[in-house]
Design goal:
This protein is mainly alpha-helical. It folds into 2 domains: 155 residues, UbiA prenyltransferase (Tetracycline Repressor, domain 2, Orthogonal Bundle); 126 residues, Four Helix Bundle (Hemerythrin (Met), subunit A), CATH 1.20.120. Helices cover 79% and strands 0% of the residues. Helix 1 packs across helix 3, helix 12 packs antiparallel against helix 13 and helix 12 packs parallel to helix 14. The two termini are 26 Å apart. Its main location: membrane. This is Prenyltransferase.
């Protein structure tokens, strides 16, 4: 959940840097508005998670019977009640901020509902794990649009588009990384990119997506007039990932691949934090 708070402050930083002036709206300065906005964003992602649990409940009951939901320690109905109750907070925060923010929220909600029902073509989407994952990651730019409009209105500098692309690529790279396994650890009935594409192709795809993310992050930080060493730090993480995954091409090691997954998450978090630090402290 902390990552979603970081995302909120990343978009906030891009919004105010893009306006190239200090915050002049008392509402946006107020701590309660900021806290409520962070909770609203966390609530949105929580509901996405609940949607995933609903879709995957039957499959997970077979493959992961010991999980909290599958074992009955927590019930889907309980999660749904919490998630749907929090919609009121999202709507209230959006309407209080303004009609454009509410419309941004509606756009994100509408797309999330299409995701919930797998765009009404589940059989077609499940034929390609890449297509399935990419279509679901497109929610990220819409969530960023919602947060951004709440801060900057309908003003969209290059940095806005860069942060949308960066979040899309970062999220997609993490999605791929967590579903790459050594051949000896593939499980029947559980989808993975390494099974669907082949291990080497899956690793190559991940490195290409990460390279794209690094390129967009460079453009974003350059638009924010960041110092070269900030970009270099992100580049070092990518270099470590490159070494780890190329090493695993010859001899796949599940433990190393899980470390790679953690490094990809670090790459994503570092990308977001670098924006916050550059705008607010450098």
């Amino acid at each position: 959940m902390g990552l979603f708070a970081v995302l909120f402050f990343t978009v906030r930083a891009v919004a105010f840097d893009g306006q190239n002036n200090p915050i002049d709206n008392d509402l946006q300065k107020s701590w309660w508005w900021i806290v409520t906005g962070v909770i609203a964003v966390i609530s949105f992602f929580f509901r996405l998670r609940v949607f995933d649990e609903i879709k995957d409940f039957s499959i997970d009951s077979v493959n992961h019977p010991d999980r909290v939901l599958q074992s009955g320690r927590v019930h889907l109905k309980q999660l749904q009640i919490i998630s749907y109750s929090l919609i009121a907070l999202e709507v209230g925060w959006s309407l209080l901020t303004g009609v454009p923010t509410f419309l941004g929220w509606l756009a994100a909600v509408g797309y999330s509902l299409l995701m919930r029902y797998e765009f009404f073509v589940p059989v077609f989407l499940k034929k390609s794990l890449i297509l399935y994952g990419f279509t679901h990651m497109l929610i990220m730019p819409l969530i960023i649009l919602w947060i951004y409009v709440a801060h900057a209105g309908l003003y969209f500098p290059l940095a806005f588009w860069y942060v949308c692309a960066a979040s899309l690529l970062a999220g997609f790279s993490f999605e791929i990384a967590r579903k790459i396994h050594a051949p000896s650890h593939e499980r029947s009935g559980i989808d993975s990119y390494s099974k669907s594409l082949g291990f080497k192709v899956a690793v190559g795809t991940l490195l290409i997506v990460l390279a794209g993310g690094l390129a967009v992050q460079y453009l974003l930080l350059n638009a924010l007039a960041a110092n070269w060493y900030v970009v270099a730090l992100i580049g070092i993480i990518y270099l470590l990932l490159l070494i780890l995954y190329i090493t695993n091409l010859r001899k796949p090691d599940e433990n190393q691949l899980r470390k790679g997954e953690l490094l990809v998450s670090l790459f994503m978090i570092a990308s977001y934090l670098s924006v916050i630090i550059v705008v607010n402290f450098l």
